[in-house]
Amino acid sequence: MEYNTTLPEIIVPEYGRNIQRMINFACRVEDRDERNLIARSIVKVMGQVNSQYKDSEDFVQKQWDHLFIISDFKLDVDSPFPVPEIEQLQKRPKKLDYPNQKIKYRHYGHSVEQFINKASAMEDGEEKDSFTYYIANVMKKNYLMFNRETVSDELITKQLGELSDGKLSLNEEFTLKSSNELVPAAARTNTFQKKKKNKKNYRKKH
Asked: What ranges do the domains of the chain cover?
């Protein structure tokens, strides 16, 4: 009986061991025409295994690329696409810079600050007032999701002014949505309990 632990590692797991065996067999076929025929048949089977990606533009090319990768580039056949370069595959992706923006009120998030900057640059008028009203409601919703407790509209208005350096203020005709309308009490409780559980698990690990 064969056990997976004793068998060779599957190079591309999404295709399974049987396709890898088929490709290994193709590598041993001496006749080139027969080898090409087998390779095309294998690619068709690979496409059936990953049919959920068939709508992508480079679907067929990916099957051929994986064919060569699984064969460890030992399969010598005529591909309709350029054979991928080993060096390019082994090349590490460029390291992304870690975002280090300073957020005054972390529970509002960086997106809210971007909204505020955009609104601050707008000309006074109905559009700016509507956008400011939207931002204030987002702030209130984020505050409730973070703190669970209710929050006064006065606090949201005050912090809106702080974050915009006094450039934004809520039109007196607008009233912010109620706490339950923005975030139902049950959702706030579940969020709070989840955060509390995560903190507890973190303390246990550390």
From this structure: 4-89, 109-184
- Widest distance between CA atoms in the chain: 83
Kindly tell me the number of DSSP H helices and DSSP E strands found in the chain: 9, 0
Structural contact between residues 119 and 160, judged by C-beta atoms closer than 8 angstroms: no
Residue ranges in 50-183 assigned as alpha helix (H): 59-70, 86-90, 109-120, 126-147, 153-163, 179-182
pTM: 0.47
Which residues, other chains included, contact 20 with Cβ-Cβ below 8 Å and sequence gap of 6+? 8, 10, 11, 12, 70
Tokens of 55: 């709508």
Number of Cβ within 10 Å of residue 195's Cβ equals 13
Tokens of 138: 């987002």
Q: What is the pLDDT of residues 49-106, one digit of tens each?
A: 887 777 777 889 999 999 999 999 999 999 999 988 877 766 777 777 766 667 788 8
Give kind and range of the element (H or E) at residue 41.
helix 32-49
**Within 13 A of 114's CA, how many CA atoms are on the CB side?**
4
AA letter at 162 = E
Using pLDDT thresholds of 50, 70 and 90, give the confidence band for residue 23.
very high
Residue 28 to residues 18, 23, 32, 39, 70: CA-CA distances in angstroms? 16, 9, 10, 12, 14
